[in-house]
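stage 2 :: seqdesign
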C-alpha cells in the first residue's frame, strides 16, 4: 500500500478482484481494445461493457445518481491497476467516459444528462471527440467548421480529422465556430451530434499499423437540433477545456501499460537466443539495456504518482505535461530496445506494432513540442517565446 492508499481503496480492490475472478471470461480478454476491434470483437466488448456496468464497475468516478460510485482519484487508480493486473479490457467508451462525460456533467442540462450518460456508461452508444481539423490541432482555437443558427436547429458544415473511434461512434462532441465575428475563443460552440444525421460522411483513416482507429468526418448542411448545444452558444471553449483537462487527468495511470510492456520484453529476452546460441540475457549489453528500461519505467511511475498526489490535493500543476512527455519517450524507447534485443523476431507481431504505434504518442493529447513549451514556462520559469 502506498501513501495514496486508504482502507476504502483496499476494500474496492478486494471487491473488484472477486468480481473479475467470476466475470472475466477468456473471450472478453481476447477481444482486445475497442480502438482497434473488428466489428465482431466490438460486439463481444459491448457485452463485456454491459456486464461491467451491471456490476457497477464502469465510470466509478461519476456521481452515484448517474450510475457511478463517486470514487476518489486513489480509488480510480486502484480500479485501473486491478483491471490491468488481469488484462481486463477497458469499457468501450474510452473517450466518452473520461473526457466527454465530465463536460456533460458540468455543462449539460438535466435532460442531456438523463439522455446521454446511461447509454454511454453501458456502451450502448459510443462517443467520439470532434475537435481537430486539418488546419487546427495544437492551435485548436483556429478551427473553422461552422454552425449557423436556423430556427430550431444549427446548420453545420466543415471537416474534422483524427476522430478516435470515429468509425464505431454513434455520437460526437463537436466543436464548431458559431460566431465568426467574435474573438476566436469566444466564437465557439459545442454540439452533441448524432452521427446518423443526413449530411454526415465518415471516412476511416488507415494508420501505419494497418488499423483504423481514427476517422475523418465531413459535415454538409447537417441540421443539428438546438437542444443539442452543450453549455451556452459561444461558450464552446470552456466546454472544450473541461473535456481536455479531464483527458489529461488520465496520465496518472500511464505507467501501468509501459511497465507491463517492459516486463514482457524482459521475459521475451530471457527466452530468446543470440546467433551464438546463448541466451540474449547473457549479453551484458542486453542486461544493461533492460536495467535502464526498468529504471525509466520506475521514473515514470514516480512521476505518475506525483501527478496523482497533486490531483488528490486539488493542486493542478505541470506534472501532467511532464508525465505525458516522459511516457511517450519511454514507450518509444521500449519499442526501440525490443528491436535491438529481439532482432528479426521484433519485425512482426506485437513488438513491430508497438514500435509503429508509439510514434503517435508524441502527438496524441498534446504534442511533445507543445508540452515542452509548457514545462519550459511552468517548471523552468523560462520566458514565453514568440
Ligand atoms: C493517437 C491520437 C489520437 C487522437 N484523437 C483525437 C480525437 O479523438 N479527437 C480529436 O479532435 N483529435 C484527436 N487527435 C488529434 C490531436 O489532438 C492533434 O493531432 C494534435 O493536437 C496536434 O495537432 P496537429 O496534428 O494539427 O499538428 P500541429 O498542431 O499542426 O503540429 C505540427 C507540428 O508543429 C509543432 N507545433 C505546433 N504548435 C507549436 C508551438 N506553439 N510551439 C512549438 N511547436 C509547435 C507540433 O509539436 C508538431 O510537431 C488525436 C491524435 C493522435 C495522434
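stage 2 :: out
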Amino acid at each position: 500500500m502506498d501513501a495514496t492508499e486508504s482502507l476504502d481503496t483496499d476494500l474496492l480492490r478486494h471487491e473488484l478482484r472477486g468480481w473479475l475472478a467470476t466475470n472475466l471470461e477468456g473471450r472478453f480478454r481476447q477481444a482486445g481494445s475497442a480502438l482497434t476491434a473488428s466489428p465482431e470483437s466490438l460486439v463481444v466488448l459491448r457485452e463485456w461493457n454491459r456486464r461491467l456496468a451491471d456490476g457497477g464497475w464502469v465510470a466509478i468516478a461519476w456521481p452515484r445518481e448517474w450510475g457511478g460510485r463517486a470514487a476518489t482519484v486513489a480509488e480510480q487508480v486502484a480500479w485501473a491497476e486491478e483491471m490491468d493486473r488481469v488484462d481486463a479490457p477497458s469499457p468501450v467508451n474510452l473517450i466518452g467516459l473520461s473526457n466527454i462525460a465530465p463536460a456533460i456533467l458540468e455543462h449539460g442540462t438535466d435532460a442531456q444528462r438523463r439522455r446521454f450518460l446511461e447509454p454511454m456508461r453501458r456502451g450502448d452508444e459510443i462517443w467520439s471527440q470532434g475537435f481537430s481539423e486539418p488546419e487546427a490541432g495544437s492551435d485548436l482555437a483556429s478551427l473553422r467548421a461552422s454552425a449557423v443558427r436556423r430556427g430550431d436547429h444549427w446548420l453545420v458544415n466543415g471537416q474534422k480529422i483524427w476522430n478516435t473511434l470515429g468509425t464505431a461512434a454513434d455520437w460526437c462532441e463537436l466543436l464548431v465556430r458559431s460566431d465568426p465575428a467574435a474573438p476566436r475563443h469566444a466564437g465557439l460552440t459545442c454540439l452533441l451530434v448524432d452521427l446518423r444525421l443526413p449530411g454526415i460522411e465518415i471516412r476511416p483513416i488507415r494508420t501505419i499499423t494497418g488499423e483504423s482507429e481514427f476517422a475523418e468526418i465531413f459535415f454538409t448542411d447537417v441540421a443539428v437540433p438546438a437542444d443539442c448545444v452543450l453549455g451556452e452558444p459561444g461558450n464552446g471553449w470552456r466546454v472544450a477545456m473541461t473535456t481536455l483537462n479531464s483527458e489529461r487527468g488520465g496520465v496518472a495511470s500511464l505507467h501501468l501499460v509501459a511497465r507491463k510492456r517492459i516486463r514482457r520484453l524482459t521475459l521475451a529476452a530471457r527466452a530468446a537466443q543470440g546467433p551464438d546460441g546463448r541466451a540474449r540475457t547473457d549479453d551484458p549489453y542486453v542486461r544493461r539495456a533492460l536495467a535502464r528500461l526498468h529504471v525509466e519505467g520506475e521514473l515514470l511511475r514516480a512521476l505518475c504518482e506525483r501527478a496523482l498526489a497533486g490531483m488528490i490535493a486539488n493542486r493542478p500543476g505541470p506534472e501532467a505535461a511532464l508525465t505525458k512527455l516522459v511516457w511517450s519517450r519511454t514507450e518509444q524507447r521500449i519499442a526501440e530496445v525490443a528491436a535491438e534485443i529481439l532482432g528479426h523476431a521484433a519485425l512482426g507481431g506485437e513488438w513491430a506494432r508497438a514500435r509503429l504505434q508509439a510514434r503517435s504518442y508524441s502527438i496524441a493529447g498534446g504534442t511533445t513540442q507543445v508540452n515542452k513549451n509548457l514545462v519550459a514556462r511552468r517548471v523552468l520559469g523560462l520566458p514565453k517565446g514568440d
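stage 3 :: structure notes
- The mean pLDDT is 92.
- The chain has three domains: 7-122, 127-234, 244-378.
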